[in-house]
């Protein structure tokens, strides 16, 4: 389900959309570092997107085994259980239970200088539905999360 969708260039529009604009988008570039936080807390996606593309980039200094991050999307009602169930899955499974049907989309865990991308269809997402994105690295999910709004 993972695909490389970016050529290394991030448009100014994509950056603008990820830092708080109320405009809906299809492409998102998520920056993370050595702290347990995403630089955004809300993503507004257009329900008319053919695909939603998410790229996560780690600009910190720490390896993924120490301070790795990923981007995981689930229904808000499922996110805590997905994160808890994934803790024992290990880094090799991106701290996600293999084949967990509650996971809508996810990137790999990335560490210093790494990035990963995911493309997925929004066709199963309901406009106005309650979706949470989070980092599934153990302990991070409790403070490292945000809302995905589909318009």
Report on the structure:
- The protein is an alpha/beta fold.
- It has one domain: Cupredoxins -  blue copper proteins (Immunoglobulin-like).
- It is built from three helices and eight strands, in the order αβββαβαββββ.
- The strands form two sheets. Strands 2-8-7-4-5 form a five-stranded mixed beta sheet. It has a three-stranded mixed beta sheet with strand order 1-3-6.
- It starts with 11 loop residues before the first helix and ends with a strand.
What does this entry show, briefly?
The protein is an alpha/beta fold and 151 residues long.
Percent in helix:
10-25%
What's the gyration radius in Å? Answer: 14 Å
Please report the first level of CATH classification, the CATH class: Mainly Beta
Total count of domains = 1
Q: Please, what is the CATH homologous superfamily?
A: Cupredoxins -  blue copper proteins
Query: Which structural category do the helix and sheet elements fall into?
Result: alpha/beta
Tell me the number of strands.
Answer: 8
User: Which descriptor suits the 3D outline?
Assistant: globular
* CATH architect. name: Sandwich
CATH topology heading: Immunoglobulin-like
- Whole-number mean pLDDT: 87
- Number of separate helices: 3
């Amino acid at each position: 389900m993972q695909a490389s969708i970016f050529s290394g260039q991030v448009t100014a529009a994509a950056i603008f959309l990820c830092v708080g604009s109320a405009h809906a988008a299809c492409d998102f570039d998520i920056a993370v570092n050595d702290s347990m936080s995403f630089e955004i807390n809300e993503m507004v996606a257009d329900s008319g997107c053919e695909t939603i593309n998410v790229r996560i980039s780690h600009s910190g200094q720490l390896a993924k085994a120490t301070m790795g991050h990923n981007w995981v999307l689930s229904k808000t009602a499922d996110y805590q259980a997905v994160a808890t169930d994934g803790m024992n899955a290990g880094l090799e499974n991106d701290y996600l239970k293999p084949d967990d049907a509650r996971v809508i989309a996810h990137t790999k865990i990335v560490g210093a200088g790494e990035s990963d991308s995911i493309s997925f269809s929004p066709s199963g997402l309901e406009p106005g539905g309650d979706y949470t994105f989070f980092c599934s690295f153990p302990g991070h999910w409790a403070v490292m999360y945000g809302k995905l709004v589909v318009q």
